[in-house]
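Dear support,

Our group has been running a series of protein-ligand predictions, and this particular one with adenosine-5'-diphosphate is the one our PI (initials K.S.) wants archived with full inputs and outputs. We had some confusion internally about which version of the output was final, so please treat the block below as the authoritative record. The input we submitted was:
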Amino acid sequence: MLQISNLSKTYPNGVKALQDVSLNISNGMFGLLGPNGAGKSTLMRTIATLQDADSGTIMFNGIDVAKQKPELRKQLGYLPQEFGVYPKVSAEEMLHYIARLKGITNDKERKELVKALLEQVNLYNHRKKALGGYSGGMKQRFGIAQALIGEPKLIIVDEPTAGLDPAERLRFNNLLSEIGENIIVILSTHIVDDVSALCNDMAIIAGGKVVQRGNPEDLVRTLENRVWSKRVQKDEVSKYQAEYKMILAKLSGGSMMVYVNSDTDPGNGFKAEKASLEDLYFANIS
Ligand code: ADP
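Confirmed final output from the archive:
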């Protein structure tokens, strides 16, 4: 169990990146969903012991993360937002190097582990290739392989599918979904569909605060019978924004659809919509 209690962080420039964040996270895939600038990376980096909060605590299975950084790191697999690689080194060499750093000194054991990881992330056929020549999706899969070394109990992946093409994203998400149920995997992302597809527990974070928390389906149910849509002209959007509780306006087939939140039928040509996680997300961040 990961227990984040009353975590706050203000950067020297005055930005309040985290404001009294509390979250209890159990085994399984947890989605931390929020727009750019919400505070996701600050939270992920703090859990990963790479920076300190101003106040609050993080406990992981009895370890006080801020006070026992080496202990936490032994149980952590981390795929940061910016995953730099040594361009001239091959995936195989790099995994051997990281495995040695993580204390796997027995040659036979390490060889078997590296081979199994390369197979798991579907990079075995590319194992001799320099990492600099890898595509975005291959780099992220390599990133998961390195994060899995040392049988971590807590895995953090920070915006892993941003910048991947749809096929690469699918492959990466399939890989994430195969990571054991018996550990905590935190997926930090602004991509609603990734959370829908993968997570059984989630939070929405905006402006450094947790604004929603729970099982995605349960959260969406709270919006049931309250989402209404209408096709409008592009220049009418601001009028609707002023008149209704707008969730979002988006292009669909070349014209504009507005989605509004209302407990009763707003009339005026609006149709009932099935609520989605996207509606919940936009209703909470705008
Ligand atoms: P996210 O990962 O959700 O995009 P971040 O945690 O990166 O959010 O950023 C949260 C806020 O803190 C943003 O307004 C960002 O500009 C600011 N911020 C992040 N890192 C720093 C820093 N090192 N110094 C000052 N401000 C920062």
